[in-house]
Design brief:
Layout: H1 8-33, E1 41-42, H2 44-51, H3 55-68, E2 71-74, E3 78-81, H4 86-110, H5 113-132, H6 135-152, H7 156-176, H8 180-198, H9 202-220
Antiparallel strand pairs: 1-3, 2-3
Helix pairs in contact: 1-3, 4-6, 4-7, 4-9, 5-6, 5-8, 6-7, 8-9
Length: 234
């Protein structure tokens, strides 16, 4: 319950922070969903109308999203959604390569039969989405698969970072898609990872997860716009 005797200066910032957070989440979700396209300019009047608020909290939310890398704020030109560039997406994948395989290994070492059943259930939905050609469901179930593995033995700080980066990659995937050959290969790759988790074989899970992510890099990165430094050494 709010203390009515508290100075206004102690109450208003908390209320504003809540508004900023709500707007930040809403704008980020719209970027991920493709409502705002890469490189699209975000016009303040349109944002005010869409989110039903005043310019001040929107400016604060945009500033936070700039810090997260979702948008760019250009001098005298306003904000625009960050463009999808090859080097940037590769950087996100490289961070994922550094974090996800060891974290998946930690999870595999302590996975229970219940955890494995949950992974198979997600994988069943994933395989069904591929058969149906449902791009949105493919993206959602693929993300759920990876998150579920890491959540068995969660490192919460790493999960927050990976969730943010995977949202970028997911938005990229929705635009550029998965080639059929990659979709077909991902089904047995997921199955092999689940089977290794069921054996609590952390070493194999780390190896399989790293190879799984690297194949996605090799397939997606060359199809993205922009230049890319030489990454022949891995």
């Amino acid at each position: 319950m709010t203390d009515a005797s508290a100075p206004a200066s102690r109450i208003v910032p908390f209320m504003q922070a809540t508004t900023y957070q709500r707007l930040r989440e809403a704008i980020r979700a719209d970027i991920v969903a493709g409502t705002f396209a890469p490189s699209e300019h975000l016009k303040m009047a349109a944002l005010v109308q869409r989110y039903g608020t005043s310019p001040a909290p929107i400016r604060e939310a945009l500033g936070q999203l700039e810090g997260e890398g979702w948008i760019e704020i250009l001098p005298n030109r306003g904000a625009r959604v960050r463009s999808i560039e090859r080097a940037f997406i590769r950087e996100l994948f490289e961070i994922r390569l550094a974090l996800e395989p060891p974290l998946a290994g930690y999870s595999a070492a302590v996975a229970t039969a219940r955890d494995i059943d949950a992974l198979w259930a997600i994988h069943k939905d994933y395989a069904a989405a591929i058969r149906q050609g449902n791009s949105a469901a493919i993206s959602a179930t693929n993300g759920a698969f990876h998150t579920s593995i890491l959540s068995i033995r969660p490192n919460r700080s790493a999960l927050v970072l990976l969730d943010q980066h995977n949202a970028f990659v997911g938005a990229t995937r929705r635009r550029f898609g998965f080639p059929d050959h990659r979709l077909a290969a991902m089904v047995p790759e997921h199955e092999a990872i689940i089977e290794a988790c069921a054996r609590n074989d952390a070493t194999v899970v780390r190896r399989l997860m790293r190879a799984h992510i690297q194949r996605s890099i090799d397939e997606l990165i060359p199809r993205l716009p922009g230049s890319d430094p030489d990454h022949s050494e891995r």
